[in-house]
Amino acid sequence: MLTVLAAFAVSTVDAAAPKAEAVRGPSRIAILEFVDLTDNQQKPDISDMVRKALASTGKWSILARDSVAKRLGEFNINPHQSCNNPQCSFDIGNVVQAEYVLFGTATPLASVHAVTLKLLHIPTAKIVWTRVMEGEGSSDADRLRSLEKSFAVAATEISQIKPDMDKSKHGKTLAVIDLSENSLQSRAFFERVCTRIYGNPSFDLMSPTELTELLTALEINKYSVVPSLENMIGLGQKLGVSNLLYSRLYRDGRSYIYRLAMYDVANKALILELPPQPSEDLIKLLDYEKVFFNTLFSKEKDEPKMAVVKDGGKSNKALWISLGVLGIGGGVAAYWVENLRKSDKPNNTADNHIPFPRDPPTNAD
Q1: Domain covering 25-169, topology
Q2: Cβ(289)–Cβ(192) under 8 Å?
Q3: How far apart are CA 192 and CA 207, in angstroms?
Q4: 25-169 shares its CATH topology with 170-365
Q5: Residue 228 CB: number of other CB atoms within 10 A?
Q6: Residue 66 in contact with residue 126, Cβ under 8 Å?
Q7: pLDDT at 64
């Protein structure tokens, strides 16, 4: 009888004592083959560099390429089919039972390797981290070494990610209206724009596929829309989004011109439009893109006030100088100030009217 009572007492104490949490092992991550936007083919050499960088942190259980391919084959999914969007990445993550999926692009762009990375958290179906980077160097080997260093930094950042498990949190809906021609250069720039927005929790980006389907359903040809304030706000209202971002990369003679503008549809206002700087060097426009988004996201984080900037003379110099003083864009802002100093004479391509194509652009490489 005493033995029974003693056993009962021990079991009662065990039941009442708090149970220690199970030690959580490394998160399972699948790294998809990066996509070259030149031909939409996979770039396994770049993916292997990312796998190596993540493996060196010791904080991930990285699914091997062969095991992922085998698992996809069992579900009749072609493992050699390129994937660079959240939907197919989410599907693959579920099939291979990964907690995270890392996917992106690696594309030769002029004198650099342009790379985008996006980290998708499968349980919440949210992109929780993104990065835009360039592999620079005088040779292909130098550019790859540059990427290797950037991947090492990115791997450290990714390993510190702690996703918000609240699925109810959402940012402001945003659609990107890109009026660029279908060239390699414009595809690379558009990918960078989308990657930057995906990485900012303030916005929920409407996927390009969803946007195309919605425009078709509404019988709207985006190329027929003049990118004025009134027209862009009207288009945003028809799409049912809070914000609209206009982008266009095009050639004017020997120079490239890049246009970016953000609209607040709800308040019917232009939030930000920086003066473009035509350049024969496409890579210099990457600095323009960097300053635009650094400025936009800094404003979004600090205060909701509008910063409307139009083309024109000395006021532009004051803008770029102020951006440098505020630490927005850093040396990039100084670079643009210097460029503006060199060209005080009027520029026909930098007027208040944003050029636009009347008809859909032809496919051009």
Answers
A1: Rossmann fold (3.40.50)
A2: yes
A3: 14
A4: yes
A5: 14
A6: no
A7: 95
Confidence at residue 220, expressed as pLDDT on a 0 to 100 scale:
95
Give pLDDT, residue 167. 74
Segment 108-120, tens digit of pLDDT: 999 999 999 999 9
359 or 243, which is more confident? Answer: 243
Torsion-angle region of residue 360: left (phi > 0), alpha (psi -120 to 50) or beta?
beta
- Rounded (5°) CA angle 182-188-191: 100
The residues spanned by each domain of the chain are 25-169, 170-365
Phi, psi for 245 (deg, rounded to 5): -115, 125
pLDDT at 16 over 90: no
How many CB atoms within 10 Å of residue 10?
10
For the stretch 203-216, pLDDT in tens is 999 999 999 999 99
CATH of region 170-365: 3.40.50.10610
CA distances from 23 to 20, 56, 57, 159 (A): 9, 21, 19, 17
